[in-house]
Amino acid sequence: MSPNVGVLNRSHAVCVGVIFPALCVGYPSDSSRVFNGQESTAAVAIELTEKLTVAVPGGRSLRGAALSPTGDLIAAWFHGVPGIRLYRGSVGTDVLVRDVGRAIGVGFLDEGTMEIVDAAEGQAIVADTAGSVVSRRSLPAARQAGAAARTELGWFLALTDAVSPSIRIPGAHGAWLPDSTYARPISLGGGDAEALVWQSLSPFRAWRIGADTDWLPVEFQQVSPDWFDEDVAGSVRLNPGIWSTTSVVSIGPGYVQTLAHRSTDRRLLLWFDSCGRFVRHSAVDAPFGFVAGATGASIVLAVRTLNTTELVKYFWEEVPDSTEAAAQEGK
User: Fold this and answer.
1) Greatest alpha-carbon span in the chain
2) What pLDDT score does 72 carry?
């Protein structure tokens, strides 16, 4: 039986049910956006509804996961395990792709083809979902990378094994070293239109690099202890080493950054608007975090660990923010 998740503070405009069958978060009405085909300044909420849960095989440590454009397929890769595990619906199959020794990133080209960055051999391999290799090309910098994210510009690489950790931007954009990154782990994710970069440790900085930024890094509003209730604020301010960023993912009109407490199950979900400005946070007392989105569908993938580790697909939808509407009526 799944345990109950505590009710979150309603001032954060978040509602959560038992182990996240549904979740919603509100965005303020300080900027216009298109809602149901109409431009509107009304507040909206992102409502997430659980659609599918699949188990990760016991003994495996998840390194990363990706969704196909429609969200129908999940590709997962693991530390120390060759190949890819592909989920079609609730059925998971290990797909061995020839010469993939250490996958650090997977991107779907379509529903039947994926591209895999292999750090062991420094290459990018295109294969079908049965594991047959279609093509391969050299990507030498991948040998120094700990993570890779595919965009329409090409592969971004987090060069975590280099002397100075940096982000390799594809094309003629070279490498980028975030301020104060030295000795702080960095990672990245993203989708077709942008890459998302974050520092795992304090001060938990995050950036987006995309077509709308001319492929230059734009920083999110930096995490502040003032955002949180007193007990959380104290730990973030006085003992930031007990927190780490596990992911930054695009959802709906904004982004969510997951901060994990390193010795408990507490998770902080930090919600940002499309410009990277902090909106609000929600706290979850369970090992949980978003990991990937689908580029062509309103689907987002999360990982949670209760008795076992599970991958969970959510359908997200923009709806009117009833919390803010009720607040306005009460004035």
Assistant:
1) 64
2) 96
- 40-43, Cβ contacts within 8 angstroms, sequence gap of 24 or more: 42/320, 42/321, 43/320, 43/321, 43/324, 43/325
pLDDT given at position 324: 52
- Helices and strands (DSSP H and E) totals, the chain: 2, 28
E strands, 262-308, in order:
266-273, 278-285, 288-293, 299-305
Say how many C-beta atoms besides its own lie within 10 A of residue 206's C-beta.
24
SS (H, E, C) 25-81: EEECCCCCEEECCEEECCCEEEEEEEEEEEECCCCCCEEEEEECCCCCEEEEEECCE
Residue 182 has a pLDDT of: 52
3-state class of 150 per DSSP? strand
pLDDT of the residue at 306: 81
CA distance 39 to 28: 15
Distances (CA, A) of 174 to 39, 54, 147, 148: 38, 39, 17, 15
Find, among 291, 260, 305, the residue nearest to 3 by Cα.
305
Low-confidence ranges of the chain (pLDDT < 70): 1-43, 162-163, 180-184, 322-331
Which SS3 state, helix, strand or coil, does residue 227 take?
A: helix
pLDDT of amino acid 212: 85
pLDDT at 305: 87
- Give strand ranges (E) for 211-298: 218-219, 243-251, 254-261, 266-273, 278-285, 288-293
Q: What is the pLDDT of residue 9?
A: 26
At 12 the pLDDT is 28
Q: What angle do CA 34, 40, 44 make, to 5 degrees?
A: 80
**What is residue 323's three-state secondary structure?**
helix
Cβ atoms of 267 and 273 closer than 8 Å = no
Long-range own/partner contacts, residues 241-246 (CB < 8 A, 24 or more apart): 241/201, 241/202, 243/202, 243/204, 243/268, 244/200, 244/201, 245/198, 245/199, 245/200, 245/201, 245/204, 245/206, 246/200, 246/289
pLDDT score for 232: 87
- Here the tokens at position 141 are 């910098």
Please tell me the predicted confidence (pLDDT) of residue 36: 36
